[in-house]
Amino acid sequence: MRKLLPVIQFAHLLAASKLQSGGNAIDATAGNGNDTLFLINHLSKNSKLYIFDIQEDAIRQTKQRLHEHLTQADFNKLNQRLFFYCAGHQDMDMYVKEQVKVIMFNLGYLPGSQSKIITKPYTTLNALKKGLKLLLPNGLVSIILYPGHDGGQEEADLVTDYVSRLNTYEFGVIQYNNINKEKAPYLIAIEKKR
Questions:
Q1: So what's the pLDDT on residue 88?
Q2: N or C: which end of the chain has fewer CB within 10 A?
Q3: Domain boundaries, given as residue ranges, for the chain
Q4: Class of domain 7-192
Q5: Distances (CA, A) of 60 to 8, 52, 67, 142, 156
Q6: For residue 27, what are the β-bridge partners?
Q7: Per-residue pLDDT for 151 more than 90?
Q8: What is the mean predicted confidence (pLDDT) over 155-179?
Q9: DSSP string spanning the chain?
Q10: Which superkingdom is the protein from (predicted)?
Q11: Euclidean distance between the first and final Cα of the chain, in Å?
């Protein structure tokens, strides 16, 4: 019998299914590079990946993770299609000028760093709104929320409230969470219908 998937693995499963047919992607919160590496492994031959984080340490750690998991030749091939921005995800539309198939958010703070530097409710909400405009029809936005840290519940509530009011003719929205564990991280996935 197969176990239930943790939220991050379920987000990856959904994103992988969308990227099978190709398309560009955005990692809106690079962190330690886990989602970036996942997205690279699922990009089609000519697709681009845009990577954002407000912290230089996160961009550096993400690049380090790629160097650890990719050969130099593979990294050099990908380098023309990877775009790193030390910028807030709320500014993604300033850098990304084409539509994308997948956008991944993994909110909260950079693991192993000061937990005082966190994603903020209103910049996350602005990033989500801009991301939905950049998203292709049949594209996916995944958002992993962490209500258990300081500021996390406010961000989770704001995002959840916003997505619960999206037009059902334009977007499908699901929530995947552990309901018998208080303050557990959870996933919201949004599919653009048209």
A1: 95
A2: N
A3: 7-192
A4: alpha beta
A5: 22, 11, 11, 23, 27
A6: 51, 104
A7: no
A8: 96
A9: -PPPPPHHHHHHHHHHHHHTT---EEES--TTSHHHHHHHTT--TT--EEEEES-HHHHHHHHHHHHHHS-HHHHHHHHTTEEEEES-GGGHHHH--S-EEEEEEE-SB-TTS-TTSB--HHHHHHHHHHHHHHEEEEEEEEEEE-TTSTTHHHHHHHHHHHHHTS-TTTEEEEEE--TTSTT--EEEEEEE--
A10: Bacteria
A11: 37
pLDDT level of residue 129 (50, 70, 90 thresholds): very high
Residue recorded with tokens 């519940």: 153
Tokens of 100: 């994308």
Q: Is the pLDDT of residue 115 over 80?
A: no
pTM of the entire predicted model:
0.95
